[in-house]
Amino acid sequence: MKSLTLYEKVAHEISHLIESGTFRPGDRIPSVRKLNKQLKVSISTVMEAYRLLEDQGLIECRPQSGYYVISSPMDKQSEIAVSQPSTKPTRVSINDLVMMVFKANRNPNLIQLGAAIPNPELLPADKINRALSSVTRHYRLRNIGYEFVPGCMELRVQIARRALTAGCTVTPDDIVITSGCQEAIMLALKVICKPGDTIAVESPTYYNFLQAIEMLGLKALEIPTHPRDGINLDTLRYAIEHNPIKACLFITNFNNPLGSCMPDDRKKELVEMLSKYDIPLIEDDIYGDIAYSYQRPKIAKAFDKKGIALLCSSFSKTIAPGYRVGWIIPGRYKQEIERLKSITNLSTATPMQLAIADFLSNGGYDHHLRKIRSIYARNISLMSEAVIKYFPEGTKVSRPSGGHVLWIEMPEDIDSLDLYEKSLKKKISFAPGPIFSSRRRYRNFLRFNAATWNEDIKTAVKIIGALADRL
Ligand SMILES: Cc1ncc(COP(=O)(O)O)c(C=O)c1O
């Protein structure tokens, strides 16, 4: 596990004091000199720590006065409540709506607040493209051949090493390379389920999961989800005891769209519960590396003793979505997953696997992560403040602790599909709430992508807020 540098530890302690309410919005935090004496660390260490906290949007420096906790206009009342979905499984019918909404994603003339794509400027474009040319030269023939299932060994070695930072000990043989995280999810669903089966999902959840569930003729059962801590385990237990749940499909770290993250002890409880009932957990950890804290959270797979968890992830959010490189750690389903991957497309493209392996082994990934984590944390904080400022009174926002999307609840009478139509006329797109639910709930909700924050985006948020005010 990556050990923290001294300044990260100092920043961590201060942010903990802020989160726990010891320092409240507007409070002055100890001066640099005071903290350097108190903690017996150097002045430059405290300065570094305060810079990090500034980047994360937690504190601000007031000239001649000192450092203060940001006086956020967001208080408890502006925080979204736990969702309360229907307790019955349902067939899903969402594809048409999603396709209609996401046609706008391909329109370069729109300001894009819709798709959850990373900020391309923050991806290591030069480094990864250099790695690609280097492996192309180095592996002249291997590069143009198949890299049959389970995929490139060098890459699986790197993924196994990185799994340690998520609390999980696996070997390269436990891993199967896929073409992105979405392929990993599809393989898992296809191996485990047959038409008519019920899948438990978070509520709200990523619309591509719902599309997959629809395509495979499955039913979705939405589980109430806390906007910070993830699914409610008591309700899940009740749901399992009263429904024939075939599998759970959860984004345990930084759910899309909520940003929720299950604390590690609850992940453990989840895995123990599912092991007891022998229900597989398909776990999506695509945002796990973009934790705003200093150490990424564990994955539920780390607590899996029986092989019931199928961990799915990719480098689409942190390195290169276009390279289409992901993986699955399928536990006891390895043989079936390998067979299905092989039948589906024989292998994932070789040059991309080699290039990502090269980039990971030559270092720089952790440094890159540190940079994007603090920028995304700051963007989320600035966007949240703008939403509270410009949207109608009563609007609430999620409090993500990782990732780069923001979930917004508007007053009940505002229909996000109506708002979406009007926004398109102003050349702005976003993701309306109903696509995140099997029953098209969340009509007064929407999701923004905060991967990029600049004056244009701020103006777009202001325009949508004003449109919402007039609905
Ligand atoms: C939660 C989640 N899972 C999976 C994906 C798709 O990942 P990939 O592009 O690696 O297939 C996304 C993309 O937005 C996502 O948000």
Structure description:
With 471 residues, the protein is α/β, with parallel strands linked by helices. Helix 2 packs across helix 3 (43-55). It folds into three domains: 6-69, Winged helix-like DNA-binding domain superfamily/Winged helix DNA-binding domain (Arc Repressor Mutant, subunit A), CATH 1.10.10.10; 77-122 and 375-470, Aspartate Aminotransferase, domain 1, CATH 3.90.1150; 125-365, 3-Layer(aba) Sandwich (Aspartate Aminotransferase, domain 2), CATH 3.40.640. It has 15 helices and 17 strands. It is globular and about 65 Å long. The termini are far apart. Pyridoxal-5'-phosphate is lined by residues 116, 180-182, 206, 251, 256, 284, 286, 314, 316, 321, 326.
The kinds of small molecule bound in this structure are:
pyridoxal-5'-phosphate
Major beta-sheet overview:
9 strands, mixed
Nearest-integer average pLDDT: 93
The CATH topology of the largest domain comes to Aspartate Aminotransferase, domain 2
Count of helical regions: 15
CATH superfamily of the largest domain: Type I PLP-dependent aspartate aminotransferase-like (Major domain)
Helix content: 40-55%
Number of domains: 3
Structural classification: alpha/beta
CATH architecture of the largest domain, please? Answer: 3-Layer(aba) Sandwich
Please report which band the strand proportion falls in: under 5%, 5-15%, 15-25%, 25-35%, 35-45% or over 45%.
Answer: 5-15%
Count of extended strands? 17
Question: So what's the CATH class of the largest domain?
Answer: Alpha Beta
User: In angstroms, what is the radius of gyration?
Assistant: 22 Å
N- and C-termini, Cα separation: 50 Å
Coarse morphology: globular
